[in-house]
Amino acid sequence: MAETILTPPLPDYGGPHQPGITDPVWPATAPEGVGEAQYDALYAGQLERQRHLHVITADVASRTREDLSDLLCELTKFAKRQMAKLPPKDTQRPYDAPVVTRRVTVTVGFGATLFTTLAGDDRFNLAARRPASLKVMPQIDGDEGFHPRDHATDLVILVSSDDYYVNEYIFGRLYYRGVHPDIRVRSVERGYARPDSREPSGFEDGITNPRDCTAPSSMHDVVYVRAEDSEPDWCAGGTYLAYRKIRRRMKRFFDLSPTAQESVFGVEKKSGTRLEPLDAHSHVAKINPRRTNHLDLFDMDDLERRFLRRPYFFDDGLDAAGEELRGLHHLSFARNLGAQYEWPVLMWQTNPDFPVPGAGIDNLYGTGGASNIAGGYYFMPAAASGDDHLGTRLGL
């Protein structure tokens, strides 16, 4: 056991971006008294997610732009209050360790249907302001009984904290319309984080995540829209969220030998080291090819198509057949949804002729038994400053 115990980093409540995307994050340099080599390998610049996640989707029942503006104003104020709250001391028992912070973040995103409904109605006169890549998530190979169009919603609200009941309280306020009567919650998904980021079958998720170590931050370069990007002006400082709830068929996977399990992922289970030779349809070969000196037809290197993963895991009990309902909430943040997320998914992961003809789709979705059962695309705007709300820059 190490003699020094590090205090987890806090969310960034005062920055230009909404908290809960690229934060909390460990500082790039090791604090005094901490071994630099170990710190650099395991902490420096890495996300330190809160323990619990609620993914809440909702529609808005507002009829006018003024009503929508009022809704977003109340939602913004509510989110700021929840993040600013200190844990009440009168509910803490006298001999328990004091709770100083629950590291609460409430992160709000807009779905494509907020700008144009599925029926094509520009109800708030926002269609011309829609982010360039925002749309209803398309159907892909690997979707199991999941039709993204049926899951498309106006809003997503990501609630994260270190205490489950805090998330439940915030969800209850939204669900029972205590924040605004026009917020109509459609669904809630609950997840948990592991410090080692190992998904249900024991393999680490997000090994190659960008870190916040360089200046300017490589993580921020990958995630946040810039003013010079081909986006409406109000999108600068925001980011796209691609969310998939991925079920893992654990019995099918655990019936494989340890060697076959590693072959599905293409890495050694304990170390995360890529296997050599690498099966062409293994997960890492399909989603993270790492070709040297390779530029694709858009003159992009493979590393330019990276995105930030913020994985949480779920355990929803058993299904009707008595099989476990386990898997991960795959939260991906990208500055360019098409180039960084859809290209790797459509041109690599689900393309049967990548990286070689006849490779098949990602083996995680074949032998590995993974399937997509929920999800959607959203745009997470920049943080609201001063008296502004999350719709101010949108013109509301």
Query: Which bin fits the share of residues in helices?
Result: 10-25%
What's the pLDDT, averaged over the residues?
A: 94
Q: How do the SSEs run, as a string of H and E? A: HEHEHHEHEHEHHHEEEHE
Report the β-strand fraction as a percent range. Answer: 15-25%
How many helical stretches? 10
Span between termini: 53 Å
In terms of per-residue confidence, which ranges show pLDDT below 50 for 5 or more consecutive residues? none
Derived from helix and strand composition plus strand pairing, the structural class reads: alpha+beta
Query: For the report, how would you describe the main beta sheet?
Result: 5 strands, antiparallel
Principal-axis shape: globular
- Please tell me how large the radius of gyration is: 21 Å
Counted beta strands: 9
